Amino acid sequence: MMARRIRVIGIGAGNPEHLTIEAVNALNTCDVFFIPVKGEEKTFLAGLREEICARFIKGKQPRLIHFDIPARRQDGAYAGAVKDWHEAIAAIYERLLSEETGADETAGLLVWGDPMLYDSTIRIIEHVRARGHVAFEYDVIPGISSLQVLCARHRIPLNRIGEPVQITTGRRLAEGWPQGVNDAAIMLDGIQAYETVADPDAEIFWGAYLGTSMETVLSGRLGDIAPDISRVRAAARAEHGWIMDTYLIRRKAGPEDGEAQP
């Protein structure tokens, strides 16, 4: 018996050519795509999703259903705010599945980068499943992440031989250097947390808008280049109205693991 299906498809970090053959094949099985739009950043990403559909889908064109992503409340209770935000998006997905997707159709969700790396689409889909109001199956197609593109642009491996790497956020980095590692990859940094790292001799490999025509990369000794990164970052945000950046910091010698940064 046929049933609704969701395909969570990683579409890469910004370049349509990042799509894998598996992702292209998955695109061509979808009857409808749910396209989030809100704000300048989301408008740009929505346009790129539409471009990907137009470029890679052959034959019958699927329906594109645009929807607004609700704003996350900013009251200081981070975990609770994220939980409420995910529940609100889950309610939207549930409605779109019920009202915009036939009982035997497949809906596609085009996820920036890779769905498993600092993206909550899988969690939100599980929220929809837990609500139990709409029956569906789903699968996940991996994609190229901004972290992969960052390392490729700087021509470096993500890890050093025998050394671990911690992937974390700017918010967590600002609370202190991660314990037990000298290499930290930072995503979702809205506060320029690299400025809080008390090791000017560390190396930083930074990139913004990775994979897009706006891509910018910088690297060097943290104490020397951090002001340049902040200046370039501010100018890019002013020009485009949003910023999406990722970076890797490699510490040669620094404060004791877990020590808070001044």
From TrEMBL:
GO terms for biological process: methylation. Its EC number is 2.1.1.152. Pathway: Cofactor biosynthesis; adenosylcobalamin biosynthesis. InterPro entries: 4pyrrol_Mease, 4pyrrol_Methylase_sf, 4pyrrole_Mease_sub1, 4pyrrole_Mease_sub2, CobF. It catalyses: precorrin-5 + S-adenosyl-L-methionine + H2O = precorrin-6A + acetate + S-adenosyl-L-homocysteine + 2 H(+). It comes from the Bacteria. Residues 7-225 form the Tetrapyrrole methylase domain. Keywords: Cobalamin biosynthesis, Methyltransferase, S-adenosyl-L-methionine, Transferase. One of its GO terms (molecular function) is precorrin-6A synthase (deacetylating) activity. This is Precorrin-6A synthase [deacetylating]. It comes from Pannonibacter anstelovis. The gene is cobF.
